[in-house]
Amino acid sequence: MRAAVFFEHGSSDKLQISEIELPPLKANEVKIGVKAFALNRLDIFTRNGHPSLKLPLPHVGASDYSGIIIEVGENVENFKIGDRVLVNAGLSCKVCTSCLSGENSECDKFSMIGEHHWGGAAEYAQVPITNVLKIPDFIEFVDAAASSLTTLTAYRMLHTRAKIKNDELILIIGASGGVGTMGIQIAKLSNATIIAITSTDEKLEKLQKLGVDHVINYREFPNWSKEVYNLSKSMGRKGVDIVLDSVGEAVFEQAIRSLRKGGRYVTCGATSGTSGRINLALLFWKQLTIMGSTMASDSEFKDALQLLFDNKIKPVIDKVYNFEEIKDAHDRLESGNHFGKIVLTI
Length: 346
Known about the structure:
By secondary structure, the chain is α/β, with parallel strands linked by helices. The protein is built from ten helices and 18 strands. The protein has helices at 41-48, 97-100, 141-161, 178-188, 201-210, 224-234, 252-257, 280-285, 298-309, 326-335; strands spanning 2-6, 15-19, 29-38, 59-60, 64-72, 84-87, 90-91, 111-112, 124-128, 132-134, 169-173, 193-198, 214-217, 240-245, 259-267, 289-292, 317-322, 341-345. The chain starts with a strand and ends with a strand.
């Protein structure tokens, strides 16, 4: 089959379309004819490589993909050839205490399709049946591919970790990315008032159209936490209830300063770096909660995607590329100029 692979870590120039073979299908797996796959920052990190990632090469990326089942393993039930599906990229053992309690992403053996295992940047992909979800006929493959990872991530961050309540004030950092654009829509379902941080006036206008109440251009206001506080004060508050962050190091200190007393900070990523400075006096005096969030449980995955199936949310698509344009798609993502998801079709 044709796949977008890299044989060594490095820039997007290392990507190439090559012929490779899938291993034999396991009894608990299905083989999917991939129709569309989406990129995440994880694809950039995996391609570049990092010391903690011990990855056999060549590697096929893409954690998010959708398509049609073309073969089923002998132990597969409730799915058949011809079913339209999308994939949950999180793999866990299913038998440990964490998995049995419903916290799959806390499993000691937790790993990711597209990072630790071959993903969907190929004509075909094989995945355990526990990681497959049927999609309604009215959902386009492009929208399905763009929705899985970002939707389940934003859903867990807001509902399970931050425990969002109705009518809260939420600051979203990295608002123009996949998690950010989904987080906006999911938060709005709880009637949240949203402040977003972005980098250009063009993105500012798009965020407003998506439903963001207040947008701050951090290039114009580098001390943006003061702007956040002043906005909150104009609403009779003293800081935001929740900070939703996927950026990390570059924004962490100001993100913490933006919280009200008793506020909650939740992060799912660190695209700008993994270190963060904090004033401990601020932490204990304001009784803040700082928490991380990774992927989602199986039940959260289904609940999150049901919002898509019920037309309550919709992925924001930046651009759709052809499979052969994989390098251009990676470059677009890496530039940071995108708004929403980058998707490729096969």
